[in-house]
Amino acid sequence: MFCSEPVLGGEESKSDHVASDGINVYQSYGPSGQFTHEFDGDEEFYVDLEKKETVWRLPMFSTFASFDPQGALRNLAITKQNLNILIKLSNYTAATNVEPTVTVYPTKTRPLQHHNLLVCSVNGFYPGHIEVRWFRNGQEEEAGVVSTGLIRNGDWTFQTLVMLETVPRSGEVYTCQVEHPSLTSPLLELHGVPGSSSIHVEVAELSEL
């Protein structure tokens, strides 16, 4: 819950002052909640939920203002109740990271030194935050790369196809690199193509932003 109210500094003032009154935060895991009050971007006070007392960050306001911490506790209790109702209405299930399945293949079986489309199929992953890149002999390929974007599977997971148009030559190594938050260690998979070229797929952890 959030409310902003302008506090005028006088008739000749060219800019208003803004007080952010009663910022209530509650989440279903981690810290049980937060209640703060800000003035012009500075935290004026917050409520210590364990000690059930108001802590002033800007002492000047405490000389002419007061805040009952019980009000913050009541607001957080209401916020918690509303969150639980929304969870039930949305048929909520706890979100868990699901690792992707990665397959690399050429669209056509052709001799070397002919145009071909290499496909990196990434399927069954959650959440949808994912990065897929193509490399040729260790150098990233940006030209000729086409992606379908995220496709929903209908069961909360996603899939995507990232394709590279190229002319494979003998001795070249193509790498499809996939980064995703579900992965805790690199996963390597090899896929051979006709001749001495090979396609290499690398799956690695994607750091949270």
Task: Describe the protein.
It is found in: Membrane. It comes from Ailuropoda melanoleuca. It is a single-pass type I membrane protein. InterPro entries: Ig-like_dom (IPR007110), Ig-like_dom_sf (IPR036179), Ig-like_fold (IPR013783), Ig/MHC_CS (IPR003006), Ig_C1-set (IPR003597), MHC/Immunoglobulin (IPR050160), MHC_I/II-like_Ag-recog (IPR011162), MHC_II_a/b_N (IPR014745). The protein is mainly beta and 209 residues long. The protein folds into two domains: 3-89, Roll (Class II Histocompatibility Antigen, M Beta Chain, Chain B, domain 1), CATH 3.10.320.10; 101-205, Immunoglobulins (Immunoglobulin-like, Sandwich). It contains two helices and 15 strands. The strands form three sheets. The chain has a five-stranded antiparallel sheet. Strands 6, 7, 10, 11 and 12 form a five-stranded antiparallel sheet that branches. Strands 9-8-13-15-14 form a five-stranded mixed sheet, with no helix packed on it. The two termini are 25 Å apart. Residues 1-15 and 25-31 have low confidence and may be disordered.
